[in-house]
Amino acid sequence: MRIGFDLDETLAPFMPHLITYLHRQGINVPSYEETFSFNLWEVWGCTPEESRRRVFDFYHSPDFSELRPYPDVSPLLAHLFRQGHEHHAITARPDSMWERTDAFFRNHLPNLFSGVHLTGQYSPTPSATSKSRTKGVLSCELGLDLFVEDSLHHATEVASKGVSRVFLMTRPWNQGHVVPEGVSRISSLGEICSYVESYKNARGNH
User: Fold this and answer.
1) For the chain, what is the largest distance between any 2 Cα atoms, rounded to a whole number of angstroms?
2) Confidence check: pLDDT of 199 > 80
3) Do residues 134 and 91 touch, judged by C-beta distance below 8 A?
4) How wide is the angle at C-alpha 37 spanned by C-alphas 130 and 22, nearest 5°?
5) 106 Cβ contact list (under 8 Å, min separation 6)
6) 98 touches 69 (CB < 8 A)
7) CB 128 within 8 A of CB 110
8) Rounded-to-10 torsion of CA 68, 72, 74, 78
9) Is residue 121 within 8 Å of residue 153, measured between CB atoms?
10) What is the pTM of this model?
């Protein structure tokens, strides 16, 4: 099975580090638990351009280097890898973050991913190319069977492109919304193993 993973808030905590960074800059924003929308400008009471600038500044700050995978991520991926599954990471980070993103995987999740892909959608000024190079488009190009995401918007788009199953990680910003067909909520990455096992058994019976 080919499995795709979003990076920030799926494989590694991102928002707590971002909020701490902003507080150090004297920018008071709501807590992680109060981050009710994926559109951060709605939470922070600023323009979309300003919210992107703040995130972009964080990308290039020393604080960004403190990001680490969730404790259960490496053992889970190693288990799936030993079973012969292929992993791909797809993140909306800008292209300028390639080296730092690649270093994250080399340093913390080595040899567990067949590819790391940046769509460039989350840039201060997204280009026409980045707007069309979505997670759903990449998922189809890679032939993914499963994708794991924390944004309801991205999860919905990936599912609309024909990926057979999309898992939505439970996060404060995706609560209170009905998920579309093809998207299922999960509270931990460990739930992936049960799905993968049932998928394998189903294919074995045909």
Assistant:
1) 59
2) no
3) no
4) 80
5) none
6) no
7) no
8) -170
9) no
10) 0.92
CB 182 within 8 A of CB 164: yes
* Nearest residue to 92 via CA among 143, 26, 150: 150
Strand intervals (E) in 33-149 = 86-91, 115-118, 146-149
> Residue 115 — very low, low, confident or very high, per pLDDT cuts 50/70/90?
very high
Give the other-Cβ count within 10 Å of 145's Cβ: 17
What band does 127 get if pLDDT is binned at 50, 70 and 90?
low
What number is the average pLDDT over the span 40-56? 95
| pLDDT tens for each residue of 20-46 | 999 999 999 999 999 999 999 999 999
pLDDT value for 197? 80
Check: CB of residue 189 under 8 Å from CB of residue 148. Answer: yes
Tokens coding 189: 């990455």
Which string of DSSP letters, residue by residue, matches 137-176? HHHHHHT-SEEEES-HHHHHHHHHTT-SEEEEE--GGGTT
Place of tokens 């990076």: 7
Contact 171, 191 (CB under 8 A): no
- The closest alpha carbon to 22, from 57, 69, 47, 52, belongs to 57
Cβ atoms within 10 Å of 183's Cβ, excluding its own: 20
What are 60-84's pLDDT values in tens digits? 999 999 999 999 999 999 999 999 9
CB 43 within 8 A of CB 36: yes
